[in-house]
Amino acid sequence: MGGATADAGPGEETGAGSGATTDAGTSPAPSPWAGPADGSATGLPAGRAGTAGYAGPPPTTPPPPGWRPPVHLAATPARALPAQDMEAMDAAEQQAQRVTWSVGAVVGVVLLVLLCLLCSRALF
């Protein structure tokens, strides 16, 4: 067997990453989620152990005064849109609304007929 036993009681850890020793008496590999081995609270490498926190981004050099990106193409001015015929648009909207209501009425009648057929089949 050589591993930790599977019949651990409540609150007891099992498995290789739990810190339990094996039957041979050797310790398993340390958990990758364990704290630093030397007991320090920061967990930073030895060269950076004295710094604390985030030092911020590195400094930047501002561009020279008056600097602008080069302009290769100038945009053309916007053209005038054609005039809209409001009466024709209203007539088209009314026609579309009539078609929508007609299709809805046809679908409603078909569903009502199907409902009546299904209810008559269930009752008789």
TrEMBL record:
Residues 1-72 are annotated as: Disordered. Residues 56-68 have a biased composition (Pro residues). Keywords: Membrane, Transmembrane, Transmembrane helix. Residues 19-28, 45-55 have a biased composition (Low complexity). It comes from the Bacteria. The chain crosses the membrane at residues 99-123. This is Translation initiation factor 2. It comes from Micromonospora wenchangensis.
